[in-house]
């Protein structure tokens, strides 16, 4: 099977649709090294309307040195859903995403401390929800712009009650809103271009369910966040206006083992350059673990 990001030397690619319940199967793109590598595998979960095309440079670099499993959550067009008309807002919630992530991780043998969880925006928040109380038992996480909540101006709430047929035309308003209020289109033109492309491929019905769940349901990440005991890097860029910096800082403060990872731009956080930051996180963890073992061995011998 041809990889959606082109051939990568030494990498075998395949796609699998994993059943997460009786009526839903989620697409996973698996990039596997043909030879053993001394690198932790990555389970990657992208953001709300994020498409794979926006992550190609980063995934190519990442998959060039380790196994990568790219999961598309159930609001994406790729999900296979039977009797979709019977599903409700809660079926597209972050809590449901967390359950799905855990099942996919178990399916591929990734629910273990050897795995690095990686994701952005809604995907990053869903990973945090899954990691609470150690249910997603990964060894560390690298999260780009996780959201503590998904607020929308109250005057726009009426849009969430519109029939699905209005959602395609509404994307024109959403592009205008993003450009003028949520994205610095001058400093981050690539970010705006990604959103324009993504909005052309969204599934309106699923997007509506997902938006209603997090906005009208008033989701917040704080409950039990202190139970996430593994190292978590929270990546952000000062030029990224879409993700609230104060909330990012508070997430990092509330996580027991976190570090802030400032990046020069949103473009950087979607590029091959981000690989260096993930490698640095992995090396820090290995060094800390080795030093801990050395101290314990020294105590035993003395």
CATH architecture: 3-Layer(aba) Sandwich
What CATH first level would be assigned?
Answer: Alpha Beta
Query: What do the pLDDT scores average to?
Result: 89
Roughly how many Å is the radius of gyration?
19 Å
Q: What is the compact description of this entry?
A:
The protein is α/β, with parallel strands linked by helices. The protein contains 8 helices and 9 strands.
What is the topology?
Layout: E1 11-21, E2 24-33, E3 42-45, H1 56-63, E4 68-71, E5 80-81, H2 94-107, E6 116-120, H3 121-131, E7 140-144, H4 167-182, H5 189-198, H6 204-216, E8 232-237, H7 245-254, E9 258-263, H8 274-301
Helix pairs in contact: 2-3
Textual characterization of the structure:
By secondary structure, the chain is of the alpha/beta class. The protein has one domain: Rossmann fold. 36% of the residues lie in helices and 18% in strands. It is built from 8 helices and 9 strands. Strand 8, helix 7 and strand 9 (258-263) form a beta-alpha-beta unit. Helix 2 (94-107) crosses helix 3. The mean pLDDT is 89.
Which terms summarize this structure?
alpha/beta; nine-stranded mixed β-sheet; 8 helices
């Amino acid at each position: 099977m041809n990889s959606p990001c082109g051939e990568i030397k030494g990498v075998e690619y395949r796609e699998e649709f994993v059943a997460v319940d009786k009526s839903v199967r989620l697409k996973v793109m698996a990039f596997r090294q043909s030879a053993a590598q001394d690198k932790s595998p990555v389970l990657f979960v992208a953001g709300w309307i994020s498409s794979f095309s926006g992550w190609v440079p980063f995934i190519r670099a990442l998959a060039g040195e380790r196994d990568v499993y790219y999961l598309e959550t159930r609001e994406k067009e790729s999900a296979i859903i039977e009797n979709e008309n019977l599903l409700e807002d809660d079926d597209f919630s972050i809590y449901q995403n967390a359950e799905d992530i855990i099942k996919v991780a178990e399916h591929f043998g990734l629910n273990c401390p050897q795995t690095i969880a990686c994701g952005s925006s809604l995907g990053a928040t869903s990973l945090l929800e899954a990691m609470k109380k150690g249910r997603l038992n990964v060894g560390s996480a690298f999260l780009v712009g996780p959201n503590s909540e998904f607020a929308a101006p109250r005057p726009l709430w009426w849009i969430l009650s519109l029939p699905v047929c209005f959602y395609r035309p509404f994307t024109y308003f959403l592009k205008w809103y993003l450009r003028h209020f949520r994205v610095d289109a001058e400093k981050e033109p690539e970010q705006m271009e990604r959103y324009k492309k993504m909005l052309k491929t969204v599934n309106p019905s699923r997007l509506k369910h997902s938006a209603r769940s997090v906005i009208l349901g008033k989701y917040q990440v704080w409950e039990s966040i202190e139970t996430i005991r593994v190292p978590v890097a929270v990546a952000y860029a000062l030029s990224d206006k879409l993700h609230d910096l104060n909330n990012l800082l508070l997430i990092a403060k509330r996580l027991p083992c976190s570090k802030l990872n400032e990046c020069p731009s949103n473009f950087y956080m979607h590029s091959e350059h981000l690989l260096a930051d993930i490698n640095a996180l992995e090396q820090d963890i290995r060094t800390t673990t080795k030093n801990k073992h050395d101290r314990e061995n020294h105590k035993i011998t003395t």
